[in-house]
Structure to design on (281 residues):
């Protein structure tokens, strides 16, 4: 239950973006009277999905094999979390920089690649990018496959309704909400990686239990803020990546990372607002 919402939101957000991108490409081809290239959009989309599933399958098999290695498993989980975090951070940064102008960004890419191979490549890269992000985040966060695919299915239904003009949705607000959630989950991933890494180093006797790195920032595990069962702690854990007994290093790095990404996002919004004001004047 505690990983359902993160997995659902991840699948929904990335699935919706991928499906909307495919819709934007198809609409652009129709408007530019290049409908003969539509089939290559589908080829690229299928290729992107297959590539994503392939990478997801490899990561799944790898994680299952590592899980049997006891102490090494925690060290591996920590290391893989940092690798996943690096990749996810680049995806989030791209969203912050280009997500608000997704339509123009996609149309620009399509207009510069108006050929069978070019269109298939654009569709493949954009769909695979979203799919690989889901696979990496799911692998590092140990999210449930059922919740993930439930989110993707919900995204597909909504994307179809939007593309057929059956529903109207404020996509900017929707993407902003889900992007904020992904930033919080990425911060949690960093905290998780640090915590598991310290735990693994302690288990392997590479760090003594007296090492200052194990000093806790606070301990609220006996209160309602306990992140596994607490009345407030559990929902905070699900929604914000809250941890009730973090090491000082874990606590500082997790929220410094989260705050930095929110600051970059806020600065990007202000820059875009200034540009709009200058154009208006």
């Amino acid at each position: 239950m505690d990983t359902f919402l993160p997995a659902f939101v991840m699948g929904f957000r990335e699935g919706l973006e991928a499906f909307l991108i495919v819709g934007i490409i198809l609409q652009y081809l129709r408007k530019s009277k290049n409908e003969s290239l539509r089939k290559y959009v589908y080829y690229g989309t299928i290729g992107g999905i297959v590539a994503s599933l392939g990478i997801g399958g490899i990561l799944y098999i790898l994680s299952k094999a590592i899980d049997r290695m006891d102490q090494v498993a925690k060290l591996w989980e920590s290391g893989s979390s940092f690798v996943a975090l690096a990749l996810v951070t680049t995806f989030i940064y791209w969203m912050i920089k280009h997500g608000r102008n997704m339509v123009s960004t996609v149309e620009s890419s399509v207009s510069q690649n108006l050929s069978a191979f070019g269109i298939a490549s654009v569709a493949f890269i954009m769909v695979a990018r979203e799919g690989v992000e889901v696979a990496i985040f799911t692998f590092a966060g140990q999210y449930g496959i059922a919740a993930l695919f439930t989110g993707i299915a919900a995204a597909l239904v909504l994307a179809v309704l939007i593309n057929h003009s059956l529903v109207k949705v404020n996509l900017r607000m929707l993407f902003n909400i889900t992007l904020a959630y992904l930033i919080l989950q990425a911060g949690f991933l960093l905290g998780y990686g640090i915590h598991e890494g310290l735990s693994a180093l302690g288990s392997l006797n590479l760090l003594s239990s007296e090492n200052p790195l194990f000093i806790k920032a606070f301990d609220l595990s006996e209160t309602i803020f306990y992140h596994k069962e607490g009345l407030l702690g559990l929902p905070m854990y699900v929604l914000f990546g809250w941890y009730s007994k973090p090491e000082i290093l874990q606590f500082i790095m997790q929220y410094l990372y989260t705050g930095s990404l929110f600051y970059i996002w806020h600065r990007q919004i202000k820059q875009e607002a200034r540009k709009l004001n200058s154009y208006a004047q």
In short: The chain is about 75% helix and 0% strand. Residues 3-214+247-280 form one domain. The two ends are 52 Å apart (CA to CA). The mean pLDDT is 83.
